[in-house]
Structures are given as structure tokens and as C-alpha cells.
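haha ok so turns out i had the wrong file open the whole time. this is the CORRECT one, sorry everyone. sequence first:
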Amino acid sequence: MTTVNEPIAATKYATPCLPMMMGSALQPKPEPTESRHDAAAIRSIYDLNQKYEQKHAAKIWVEPALNRTLVSFQANKQRAVYRWYKYKEGFSAELVEYFLDRGKVHSGKLLDPFAGSGVALFAASARGLGAEGIELLPIGQRVIATKQLIDQHLSAADVDKLATLARTHPWTQIKTTDSLHALRITRGAYPPETANRIAQFSAYIRTETPHIADLLTFALLCILESVSYTRKDGQYLRWDHRSGRRQGKQIFDKGSIHSFDTAITAKLDQMVADLRDQGASNSLFAQPPTAHGPITLHAGSCLEILPNFSAGSFDCIMTSPPYCNRYDYTRTYALELAYLGVTEESLVDLRQAMVSCTVENREKDLIKMQPQWAKAIAVANAHPLLQMILSYLESEKQNNRLNNNGIPRMVRGYFYEMACVIQECARIMKPNAPLIMVNDNVRYAGVSISVDIILSEFAEALGFEMDSILVLPTGKGNSSQQMGLHGREPLRKCVYIWKRKK
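then structure:
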């Protein structure tokens, strides 16, 4: 990794470079900030960041083929089976296919160390590649396991049974005194009649065969949000005013709250239609038909699991790690986690096991976890831009100018932990193998943080060559709170492409 000490001459963009709607792909000059922040420090960070942007300008360009639909869950809404569960933090199967084609990855084994709902795994498997994924959250693990069940074991008779259940609603005849397991943050999430129906449905599930029980459980997980008083909103669940919970000054109305029977019938009908269209006796994910590659899921944190893989094991990595944006997936997916039996204690453990992306994450002892990560930590320690940002955030904390004092610890943890992840990825990849990563830049205390450049420089120091940073044509705005203070400054939403050094 080359440090930047002297100004670097501006480089013209490589083709295809298009201007963004709100400026170039490089960071615009910051707007005047509120006096409560250290304007001189912000200017120094901006100036140093510009040198890095100029250094890499030939490799940072707007990619017209990309859009927010492709790099998010949105495109999956049009795909059978993928559309059943709305996993907002994932990317689309079409994006995986695009980069497999672009990188000419036609054989071998793909890894997604932040597997989410398994989109990369199933899209790669459908192309005949072997696929392995690592996923920490039980909801992601359940989605992947259900897709594997459908792909490998479902029969036409199973589909017919689902269709019958969608018509007859036998769970309504179940008498049960069971109560729903709830977490502190999900207590009272459903209207009383809905909570009773969920309990009846759960009791009925226990009477069914394993395959049908798994499918019904999955269908229930798919509708929990729509029948609740809540809506996922990044850092937490928002509560409808009808719940009786007050949350902030503004009253939130999520609109229609579906009845349980209406929602579960619609979901089962959708599942049956998709399964019948694609043929339950054939592979559901084959587009075009081909022999599927095997899929292996490793449950747990990638910081714990990556070191267990052998060196030179993978031909491609495609992933989207948690963004450094304070989003807490243990809160946004709390309804699903509660239904799956996650306890208060295990919820805290899950939150701490994640790559640091929330203000509640405590510092991890990375050297104790893996002594060989001293190399990655040294790379992070030596990066001037990162260290300037961390020093600024710590100073703002000491001067009581942050809206949350956990921000400096979170940002530090995020970059140091990601450095360790990158070191492990380099170790386990074959020479010249591509790594494709979807990620967002972020902004805190008036400073735009070029996550793309910092992580790419880490990668160059840890065994990769930086091929390109592809920027979506439309910039991503910062948080509403940051926009209120500093205006809407576009932040790059990117796909990084790195190649393992030969």
C-alpha cells in the first residue's frame, strides 16, 4: 500500500466514465458545515481524501450497467422463489450472474462470507459452480436451508399439499394455549387476533411432515412484518401508532396491516404458483438448465470461520458485507429472530459477533482471535486517511459533538475487522481469482468516508490487485440526520473488483 504524502496529478477517468447526476464519481467539495464541527479538520480530511481519489481516478468510474435495483433486493422481486422472503440487505441474482459472466467464472467454487439469504450461492450453483457461504443470523440460515430443501427434495405432492392448505386453513381449528416467544423489542408486535393465529399456525406446523413443516415455517417468516405493527427501518423497527408504543415525536402509520389468514394465503398461493411454474420435480434454480453445483452453508461469524478454510480454496468471492452505517440487523430482523427462538442473551451475542456496524458493538480482540491478523492490523494502523478520520471522530467525541459516542469505536472496529476479513480472503483464494464486493460509502460528523478507497488500499497491501471501483450512476444520500445538518451530499455506492495476485 502506498501512502500519500504529495499531491498527485489529477487523472482523467477511464472509459466508460459518465458524470453522476449530482457531480462526478469522486467526492465533491464539502458544503460549509455547522460550527459545532471542526471545520479545519474536515478540510484536512477532504484534502487528503482528494489525493487518494486522484491517485485511483483511472480505476474509479461510473458503470452504466449497474443500478440500485441490481445491487439491492429489488430485482429479486421478479424472480420465482427468490421473491418469497424480502431480504432487503441482499443483492440480486442478476447481479451475481452479471459478474460471473464479466469475470468469466464458469467453473470452480464461489464463496460468500456474508451470505445473507444465499442469493450468491444459489445463482452460482445454478451455473454449475460449487458454492459455500457463511451466515451469522438464524433468519438467513433458515432462508438458505429452505431454498436447499426446495431445490433438492421437494415433490409435486408436497406442492399439492401446500395448495390444499392455502384453501382449507386447517390451523384455524387448532385449540392451543401456546403464547408467542417474544423479545423485549418485539413484545406487543401483533394485534391480539393475529398473535393467536400465529400460535395456532405454529401448533399446526408441529403436526405436519418435516418438508411441509419447513415450508410452512418459512411462509410464516415471510409474512411476520406485514401482519405486525412494525416496519423494518435500518437501525431499528418502527412501530405503528396503533400498537400503543410511542416512538419519537412523529406519529408513524404503516398503512394496511394484513390479517393473518389473508397474508398466509397469499404467500402460500405465491409459493405454489412459483413451484408449479418451474416444476417441483426439477431444479428450481436452473436458468438455463445445467447440473447444479453443491452448496455448503457454514453457520456463524466469518471472523471465526474464514481461518478454517484451506489456502487457495476458492475461484471467486462475491459478497456484500454489512455497511458501516449503524444498521443493526439483530433489531430489524427481531420479529423473525424471536419466532426462531432467539433469546435476549443470544441476541446480544449475535450483535457482538457481527462485523462492527452498530454503535453497540464492543471492540474485538483481533490478535487474540487470530495472531496472524497482526499483518492486517498493521496495514490499518499505517493508513493515513483512516487514521486521520479516526482521530477526528475521537476528537469530536471528546468535545461532545457527536450524536452518539459509540461512532468512533464502531468505525474503528469496522475497518480493522474488515482488514482481517480481507487478509483471510486473500489467503483462501486462488491466484488471479476475482473478489467482487458491494458496499456503500458513509458520512459521520460532516466527513464523507471513502470506504471504497480505504478497503481497496487494504486489499492491495494484503494480496490483491485493485482492478476497479464501479460506481452506481446515482449517488447515495447520507442519513436524514446528516442531511439536515450538512445538506444532501452524494455518497458513492460501489462494486469493488479485486484480483488475487498471482
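The chain is about 40% helix and 10% strand.
again sry for the mixup
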